[in-house]
């Protein structure tokens, strides 16, 4: 709690509000002291006027003491026209320890006196001079005990302190909730998105979608989304380059053998008039073609920079028909194509990339069937549940050999056809991962092969975790 942003903000809010309350408390306690003393002067004035209104301006000692007790003072002196008159008097328990002049006092004078009053001992006598009413220049001078004043100031201060604490806690809680709502929760959302992306940086669906309503946070989310997009593309490029690097030795060896054969045949054609040249020419052409195809496939794979998928709602029926129609144009009469996709089924994906995925799978199946010289069928099926879209590509071909199954999604090693590079399945699997899904070999045997592409409908809801 203390180490969190919201917790520290809560503590700082309480401290700052308390500091503000202290700045308010000092003049407040000075004002309270001034009003307290003025009230005593007013009561003393009333008591003195009562005496002056009596016959011979004399009252009994009992009445005089009652008037002094009611005013809370020891004596009352009236000063008018430079003449002082002791109106009421009683024994003073000790010497005067503090003098307060309330005739036009400054704010600094009142604040200084109030602080000294709080820090001074409770015992003592205060002399107070003031003019509660501006009548004929009359001034009242009284002596009063210090203990009741100090006790009243302490009580007032404690009440102010309690009120300040309540205000501080309420203000801090409101600020805490506001900061948590407008700052902490959006920051947590960004952090959870970063953690989600870090767990699968190839999954473009984990790239953050900027939703912040605060300008600065939204700009941060947009910058993070751009960075993640670039990083995803870079990771794919580097993965391909790494695979390309690991295959360089094998490619060099195979290419050297192919070109060596072609070179020998070319030398023979140049040196001899032998009729066997006619038989050697096709071999030379085939050797060179394989070398060219291998080089072109390798270079194309190394240059590939797949962009993150652009996710839209795709009508799967029409997309599958386009894929099958493209393969029908390239196929022989041995292969028949079928679609078993529910009418109206839609999925969230990149239409062009899904076309390439299905195109690679169907093309591999078609070439495998044509290589056997026997009739065969290729079928695309689709289904969905609450969590996944699944597309199955099934064929009745000869099945995959054990070596191809072991290196199915490894570049240059998972090829089935003679001279094949195996890049089709690698590219298809890469595109599926970019959607956050999986491409799996469901089954393969002499009766046929089935691949399943699974795309998730949702990923972990990190927005809810941040809340």
UniProtKB/TrEMBL annotation:
Keywords: Kinase, Membrane, Phosphoprotein, Transferase, Transmembrane, Transmembrane helix. One of its GO terms (molecular function) is phosphorelay sensor kinase activity. It catalyses: ATP + protein L-histidine = ADP + protein N-phospho-L-histidine. Residues 250-459 form the Histidine kinase domain. It is found in: Membrane. Pfam families: HATPase_c, HisKA. Gene3D superfamilies: 1.10.287.130, Histidine kinase-like ATPase, C-terminal domain. This is histidine kinase. It comes from Litoreibacter roseus. The lineage of its organism: Bacteria, Pseudomonadati, Pseudomonadota, Alphaproteobacteria, Rhodobacterales.
């Amino acid at each position: 709690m203390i180490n969190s942003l919201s917790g520290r903000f809560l503590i700082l809010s309480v401290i700052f509000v308390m500091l503000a309350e202290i700045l308010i408390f000092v003049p407040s306690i000075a004002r309270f002291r001034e009003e307290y003393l003025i009230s005593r002067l007013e009561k003393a004035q009333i008591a003195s006027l009562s005496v002056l209104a009596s016959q011979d301006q004399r009252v009994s000692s009992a009445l005089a003491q009652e008037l002094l007790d009611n005013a809370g003072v020891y004596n009352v002196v009236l000063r008018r026209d430079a003449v002082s008159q002791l109106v009421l008097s009683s024994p003073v328990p000790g010497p005067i320890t503090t003098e307060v002049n309330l005739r036009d006092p400054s704010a600094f004078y009142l604040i200084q006196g109030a602080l000294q009053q709080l820090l001074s001992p409770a015992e003592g006598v205060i002399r107070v001079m003031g003019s509660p009413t501006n009548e004929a220049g009359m001034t009242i001078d009284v002596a009063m005990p210090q203990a009741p004043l100090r006790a009243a100031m302490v009580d007032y201060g404690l009440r102010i302190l309690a009120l300040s604490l309540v205000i501080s806690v309420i203000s801090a809680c409101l600020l805490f909730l506001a900061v948590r709502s407008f700052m902490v929760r959006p920051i947590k959302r960004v952090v959870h998105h970063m953690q989600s992306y870090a767990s699968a940086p190839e999954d473009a669906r984990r790239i953050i979608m900027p939703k912040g309503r605060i300008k600065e946070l939204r700009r941060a989310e947009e910058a993070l989304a751009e960075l993640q997009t670039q990083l995803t593309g870079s990771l794919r490029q580097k993965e391909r380059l790494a695979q390309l690097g690991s295959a360089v030795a094998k490619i060099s060896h195979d290419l050297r053998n192919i070109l060596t054969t072609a070179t020998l045949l070319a030398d023979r054609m140049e040196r001899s008039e032998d009729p066997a040249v006619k038989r050697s020419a096709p071999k030379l052409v085939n050797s060179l073609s394989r070398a060219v195809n291998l080089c072109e496939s390798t270079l194309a794979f190394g240059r590939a920079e797949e962009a993150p998928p652009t996710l839209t709602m795709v009508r799967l029926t029409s997309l599958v028909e386009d894929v099958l129609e493209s393969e029908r144009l390239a196929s022989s009469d041995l292969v028949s194509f079928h679609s078993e996709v529910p009418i109206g089924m839609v999925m969230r994906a990149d239409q062009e990339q899904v076309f390439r995925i299905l195109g690679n799978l169907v093309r591999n199946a078609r070439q495998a069937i044509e290589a056997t010289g026997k009739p065969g069928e290729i079928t695309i099926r689709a289904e969905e549940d609450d969590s996944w879209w699944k597309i199955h590509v099934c064929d009745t071909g000869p099945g995959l050999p054990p070596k191809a199954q072991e290196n199915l999604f490894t570049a240059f090693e998972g090829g089935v056809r003679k001279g094949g590079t195996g890049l089709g399945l690698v590219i298809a699997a890469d595109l599926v991962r970019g959607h956050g899904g999986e491409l799996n070999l469901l089954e393969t045997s002499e009766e046929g092969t089935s691949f399943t592409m699974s795309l998730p409908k949702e990923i972990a809801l990190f927005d809810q975790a941040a809340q």
